[in-house]
Amino acid sequence: MKTLLLVVIQVLVLVSVQCTPCPKEQSIDITNGVKHPNSSVIFEGVEYKDGTWYELEENGTTAVMGCPCIGRKCLHRCCKRGSAFFNGSCTETNSSAINPFSPPVYNGKVLSSVVAHEQFFYLYQRACDDSYLVDSGAAGEELYLQQNGTIYEVSPGGQMWHPAMTYCVEMKFNENFSEPRLVAGICFQDIETDDSPILYTAYAVGLIVSVPFLLATFLIYALIPELRNLHGMCLMAYCGGLIVAYPFLAYLKLHVGRVGVAMTGCLVVAFIVYYAFQTSFFWLNVMCFDIWRTFSGYRGGSTNKRRDKRRFLLYGLYAWGVPLILTGLTAAMQFSDLPQHIVSPGFGTKRCWFVDWLADLVYFFTPVLVLVVCNVIFFSVTAHRIRSIRQETAILKGSESSRSDKLKKDKQRYGLYLKLFMVMGVNWTVELLSFAVGGSNWYWVIADISNIGLGIFVFLIFVWKKKVRNLVQKRFRSMFGMATPERDTRTGKWNTTSTAPTEDTRISTDDSALRLKDMH
């Protein structure tokens, strides 16, 4: 009996909530209005007839809520009454541009004679929490408020019509409250309802945490001469792309759905992230190609620094140049007036990235997938080649010991690159599958954790090794003039050798100077 009574009460509560004449988001508090015998309420000069207002009980008090949008056209204002956008936030002003608030009203793109403050009722609250900013004063962005309350957006991301209750409008001022222009906070239409903002924040924090490890890897390989060879420079270039991409991507994650992200800045950040990520993929492809080239027709022997520098320049022309071309093509498609059947990148249409998964697939993941396939081929052929020369390594003795040592180092390098490819290539392949399959980002959180932790993996693979740690220690001692421990091959004991200049070296230097002086 008690259970039945609880169910009845819950049903009555639901019915009472659903029977309100308008949603709470479209209601205003008219408790201080004047109630007349015919059950109408007059508040701020507006009459709310019976059936256009209701009572709401909250925290033990009863408030009278009016529904101004019944029989009227309503618009959401982004700021409160008497305020406008100034320096990125809502600021109170007595400017005539908002008192009264009456932006121009159009019929399409043709200016009409309709007066906005007489045509519309303003709700002083944003239409949603997740929105992006369109600024009619920015290059390539236009806004046309229509007579029926819809707004027509023209931006680099495309042309769109937005219903009245899916955006907020406001005036924005430059310095000294001059040159007012209309801006709109457009609600995102494709935000997943089951993805908590905590997920985006955690993703951004993970990216920021990964950056110091990438930066440490870059600096260690840059400052230690023994590591600054062709392979080290390729690794530095690879890390450099991720060092640039991760902070900007974290910025986008932290600003998902915020009005404060202007469209121009949104596009700039999107293209930076696109180019930086593409360069990292192409440098990984370069490293895979280089290890394949090393083992194809293997000859061993020493390397030539001048030849390595020339080869690095050629690699850089490819790994930095091709992504630049791809970015240029993507920008051309972004800002071109394309037919409806052509897939456009759509940066800034609804978010600061590609408009949907199809655009993401065409412009971002297609070149990535091609590179992943090429890397798989390079590694497979290299693995076959390593297996085929095992017998050669078994008989390398005497005069060919240097060749045997180099082969061992190259095989170790192959193992390092293979680990890096497995971490980055496989993860991004899973990322591609997540776009194809769809669903909440929570389903793919393991792959996301692997991606944001890439900097840590790179550090562990290429830096956190005994050989590299010893080189770092040696370089550190050399920089500060500290003694460097060396192992005596005869006794097996550690001896310390100072890196500071001795008296003998100073005399030697002085002698050289004297001999040069005597030659004049």
In total, the number of domains comes to 4
Distance between the termini: 117 Å
Give the low-confidence spans.
Answer: 11-17, 257-261, 395-399, 497-520
Structural class, judged by helices and strands? alpha+beta
What percent of the residues sit in helical stretches (DSSP H or I)?
A: 40-55%
How confident overall, as mean pLDDT?
76
Number of helices: 13
E-strand count: 20
The geometry reads as: elongated
Major sheet characteristics: 7 strands, mixed
| Percent of residues in beta strands | 15-25%
Instruction: Give the name of the CATH superfamily of the largest domain.
Output: Rhodopsin 7-helix transmembrane proteins
Q: What is the top-level CATH class of the largest domain?
A: Mainly Alpha
At the third CATH level, what is the topology name of the largest domain? Answer: Rhopdopsin 7-helix transmembrane proteins
| CATH level-two architecture of the largest domain | Up-down Bundle
CA gyration radius, whole angstroms:
33 Å
How would you characterize this protein structure?
- This protein is an alpha+beta fold and 520 residues long.
- α3 runs antiparallel to α4 (230-254) and α4 packs antiparallel against α5 (263-295).
- Strands 7, 8, 9, 12, 13, 17 and 18 form a seven-stranded mixed beta sheet that branches.
- Helices cover 50% and strands 17% of the residues.
- The protein folds into four domains: 21-68, no CATH class; 73-187, Methuselah ectodomain, domain 2 (Beta Complex); 197-477, Rhopdopsin 7-helix transmembrane proteins (Up-down Bundle); 485-518, no CATH class.
- It has helices at residues 2-18, 116-119, 197-223, 230-254, 263-295, 305-335, 357-388, 390-394, 401-437, 445-452, 454-462, 466-479, 503-518, and strands spanning 28-29, 34-35, 41-43, 46-48, 53-58, 61-66, 73-77, 83-86, 89-92, 105-107, 110-111, 120-123, 131-135, 142-146, 151-155, 158-162, 167-173, 181-187, 483-487, 494-498.
- The protein has 13 helices and 20 strands.
- A hairpin with a 2-residue loop joins β3 and β4.
